[in-house]
Specification:
Blueprint lengths: L1 E2 L21 H7 L18 E5 L17 E5 H7 L12 E2 L2 E2 L6 H4 L2 E3 L5 E3 L2 H9 L5 H23 L5 H23 L1
Antiparallel strand pairs: 1-6, 2-3, 4-5, 6-7
Helix pairs in contact: 5-6
């Protein structure tokens, strides 16, 4: 099995007052390293834009302002739409109870709920992870596909470095051509 993600995102302690929570999007994108807090998909190869999720849904906020940075999550549209205003405890201070609810994706406990198989499919490891897995629809094939594209991209970078010292010029040019075509294709995926 493969770890769910390489590192836990960490929100900076941003206290800047903003008029609307979307003003924090660039900071969130930076803190989450261009990845959805919930599924860890990188935003490069998604065909829909990334959004801002209120970890504790707005309708349950009593003491936290809706623009409070500490409650915002950089999220892909799929995870944001799946999570919506689901908050089983209905209490802003109780995130989960009896293996039902959510863990903040910036908490190290979040990634302990999941792992990946060798094809990149997300799997749940705990009962709370299972509940989040189905609520966030982490079983969707898009998560596996994006993980595989990212792995392929890493392998191609390694091959390009190897080819720098390769002596068969014809094969080298052919491989570099294929890599350029792949990069053009993935750029198109990111711009749709």
């Amino acid at each position: 099995m493969i770890p769910f993600r390489q590192e836990t995102p960490k929100r900076r302690d941003i206290k800047t007052k903003v008029t609307k929570y979307s003003d924090h999007k660039n900071d969130l994108k930076l803190d989450y390293k261009c990845r959805c807090g919930y599924c860890n998909d990188i935003d490069v190869w998604r065909t829909t834009w990334y959004e801002i999720d209120h970890f504790v849904p707005q309708k349950y906020l009593k003491t936290i302002e809706e623009t409070d940075y500490s409650n915002l999550v950089y999220a892909c549209r799929s995870c944001n739409n799946s999570k919506r205003a689901h908050w089983p405890t209905e209490n802003e201070f109780i995130h989960h109870k009896n293996d039902v609810g959510f863990i903040d994706p910036c908490n190290d406990e979040y990634e302990k709920q999941f792992q990946r198989d060798n094809k990149g499919r997300i799997l749940h490891k705990t009962l709370l992870g299972k509940w989040m897995y189905y609520k966030l629809k982490l079983h969707k094939p898009q998560h596996e596909i994006i993980w595989q594209i990212e792995e392929l991209d890493t392998l191609i970078e390694e091959c390009e470095k190897f080819l720098e010292n390769f002596h068969n010029e014809a094969l080298k040019e052919r491989l570099l051509y294929l890599y350029r075509e792949y990069r053009n294709y993935t750029k198109q995926l990111g711009s749709t």
